[in-house]
Amino acid sequence: MAKRARSSKAVSSLCVLLLVVGAVGIRAGGALESFDITAGTPSPIPGQILARVIGIKWDARAIPVQFSVNTTLDPIPNPLGAAFLSVAAARAEMQASFNAWNEIKTSFIDMRITGTTANPGVRGFDFINELTFRTAANFTAIASSPSVTLIQDTTLVDGDRIDNDADSDVSDKISVVTDVDGDGDLEFPAGFYKAGTILDNDVQFNTKTTNGFRFTVNPAEVDTVTRSVDLSAVAVHEFGHSHGLSHSVNNQPDAPDPTGATMFAFIDTRDPASERAQRTLDVDDIAYSSYLYREGSAKTGPAALQPGDVAFDKLFGVITGELRHGVLNQPIAGGSVFTVDDRIQSLGVAAFSGTTQLSFNPANGGLSFVRDPAVAILNGNYAIPVPKGKYGLRIEPVDGSPVPVGSISFTTQIGNFFGQQNFNEEPADRSGRHGDGGDTLSVSAGQTRRNIDIVTSADINIDNFGTRDFIGFTGAPAGRIYAVRIPGSQVTAAAAGRFLRLKALAFHTGTVDASIAPTYAEAMLTTGRVNPDGSIASIQLTRPLARIRMLIGQDDDLTPIFVRGGALLGQIIQQGIRFGFIDDVFLVLRIPTTPPPFPGVSALPPLVGLDGGVTTNDVPIFGFSYTSDDGGATFARRTDFNFRFSLRFADLFGRDGDDGDDDGHHEW
Questions:
Q1: Is residue 662 part of a domain?
Q2: Boundary of a domain, candidates 418, 439, 457
Q3: How many C-beta atoms lie closer than 10 Å to residue 496's C-beta?
Q4: What CA–CA distance (Å, rounded) separates 454 from 533?
């Protein structure tokens, strides 16, 4: 379930341009995005101006950020039965959720509930940072955290009425945000403010009878009811948005800890263990809160060190560079670059690449894509704040699995608009080979490692599938084998006369329960042949070309398995097909053979990604997918789905390296 949940002008004594940033959905990857039209640069679209995409944050003068709880629904509605949660209990839980962020020693963000409001309607831009259980009739998400921000550098003057009521929103009598006149709304100090400054943030929780949720506060009350959810799990996430953090794509740091970052875009309300884990911040969440609000970055004010604080530069360093598309020869907008802890092979902190621009229509406040990538994408730069240590780097497209581009940012959507989210996930190294393990990168506290530039590989994928429509099969018995045929003719056609290096196998894996890592007995690449009618005659399961036992897959994503000795295996496959020793190759995935129940609250087997099962599919059902429930003695051909299994090659003598079989790590 998603925890997800226009640009407008507000006219006062001066014209202040504002943007409502809706935190849609529920690695952090960085800041929520607004845009900046201060420069006034003409857009290629006549009558419009370019809007540079930027991050949002609170000005130091607004910290501590003051919130008010709406008390007009007490007790809080329970769409599943009798109301039981008081506003007082919800307020205490929400302040504890704020404290999860406030207690980060390297971040100076400070968010506090300081009062109440009695708004009988839904939230709106009124200079009251409202926490409310009232939502509009058309609101369908669990919760959301929309902010109103400046979209141009602005000097606010005493007496400015920004939200269109009769009350002044700016005072020259104060130096920090204060309710000067005691009427319940906040006034900003007069002065200069940068585009991207948050002026108002509200957090709304959906309790409507039609599509709302029962919110609980006791961890012991978390259950498997899909429309019941832990308030803190939702609130900690939404309060990340409240101080400017974007969604993350990190839903599974590693096998021992398959529960993702708090800022991951979705929550599994059927899985109590997953819900409870959302209360605790991940290193990704902590790193970006600290990066946006760097403790020790000023001598006075909130950013100055106080007792118990730790300077950002004492614990964190930063990795910077550029991500470019190796086929399109373009800087990439919205690609994910993330660290892997070399000691434990655990995912760390991720960044989204690119500095981008949109087109802004002053007449109606509308935004549109600029159709020239040279104008829309200024660079593919990224910056990753990381605790001091030694890391590998990986790259991954934001391609819909596990998170759609629309749940992240303008920048990821711009990259998708230009077809840039089509590269393969893989380790990154200086040689350009990618996938052989990658290089390691040492980062010291206070250090910025610059010019760590990455170019995506020009891989040759054989993908007999389209977009992911479903994951299945929940009724699979223990030991089921999934197989996908790659006809020998496809390998020959992909080679096009070149010598290929076998680079990776990839299987779209998943699980019903977000707190469980999808685990498989084995994955392999092997040989086989089919009968004239397409049924399988045989698959070689005992002597495969490549095999990995106990595969820990990614949840709802393609899990790549990088092959050592790929140059030799590529030649064995090509020459075997050429001389008739190999008819076809098969990608094979076997689920655990241990009898059910499977791990997890749902006790269901690990799943595979499926393309098909819809009225109009984006590609044909090729008939290359098979299942076996008798250990491989017989295989049933599937004519309803394409299994999303991928075979990946690299040109042996192309840009991706010489022989590609240097498996050593290198220091960056």
A1: no
A2: 457
A3: 9
A4: 46
Counting the structural domains of the chain, the total is: 3
Question: What is the per-residue pLDDT across 489-541, written as a single tens digit (0 to 9) for each?
Answer: 999 999 999 999 999 999 999 999 999 999 999 999 999 999 999 999 999 99
Domain of residue 229, residue span: 7-292
Q: How far apart are CA 105 and CA 633, in angstroms?
A: 59
Region 340-358 average pLDDT: 85
Closest CA to 537 of 591, 579, 483, 465: 483
Q: What is the pLDDT of residue 252?
A: 80
- What's the burial of 497, exposed, middle or buried (CB within 10 Å: 0-12/13-18/19+)? exposed
- Hey, is 407 helix, strand or coil? helix
In this structure, what token pair is assigned to residue 363?
């007449």
Instruction: Give domain status of residue 666, yes or no.
Output: no
Same domain, 437 and 361: yes
Q: Where are the alpha helices (DSSP H) in 16-138?
A: 87-102
The predicted structure's pLDDT at residue 19: 57
Q: Let me know whether 152 and 255 are in one domain.
A: yes
- 412 and 517 co-located in one domain: no
How many helices (H) and strands (E) the chain has is answered by 9, 45
Residue 24: give its domain's CATH number: 3.40.390.10
User: What's residue 88's pLDDT?
Assistant: 98
- Residues 145, 241: contact at Cβ < 8 Å? yes
To which H or E segment does residue 43 belong?
Answer: none
- On whether residue 661 sits in a domain, the answer given is no
Task: Answer with the one of 457, 490, 517 that is the final residue of a domain.
Answer: 457
Place of tokens 């080679």: 495
State the amino acid at position 205 in one-letter form: F
Report the predicted TM-score, pTM, of the whole model to 2 decimal places: 0.92
- Residue 444 sits in a domain of what CATH number? 2.60.40.10
In angstroms, rounded to a whole number, what is the distance separating the alpha carbons of residues 577 and 91?
68
Asked whether the beta carbons of 113 and 67 are under 8 A apart, the reply is yes
Task: Specify the long-range contacts of residues 580-583, CB closer than 8 Å, at least 24 apart.
Answer: 582/488, 582/527, 583/488, 583/527, 583/528, 583/529, 583/530
Determine the residue type at 528.
Answer: G
User: Which amino acid belongs to residue 666?
Assistant: H
Q: Could you tell me if 133 and 227 lie in one domain? A: yes
Predicted confidence (pLDDT) at residue 205 exceeds the cutoff of 70: yes
pLDDT digit string (tens) for 604-658?
A: 999 999 999 999 999 999 999 999 999 999 999 999 999 999 999 999 876 444 3
pLDDT one-digit tens code per residue, 161-200: 999 898 999 999 999 999 999 999 999 999 999 999 999 9
**Cα distance between residue 93 and residue 85, in whole Å:** 11
Helix (H, G, I), strand (E, B) or coil at 114: strand
**Same domain assignment for residues 382 and 476:** no
Other Cβ atoms closer than 10 A to 616: 4
Claim to verify: residue 533 and residue 389 sit in the same structural domain = no
User: Would residue 299 count as lying in a domain?
Assistant: no
Collapsing DSSP states into helix, strand and coil, what is residue 634?
Answer: coil
- Which of 291, 457, 453, 318 has the alpha carbon at shortest distance from 380? 453
Judge contact between 618 and 560, C-beta under 8 A.
no
For residue 601, what are the contacts with CB-CB under 8 A and spacing of at least 6? Answer: 224, 270, 271, 272, 273, 513, 515
How many other C-beta atoms can be found within 10 angstroms of the C-beta atom of residue 13?
13
* 420 and 557 assigned to the same domain: no
25 plus 111 within the same structural domain: yes
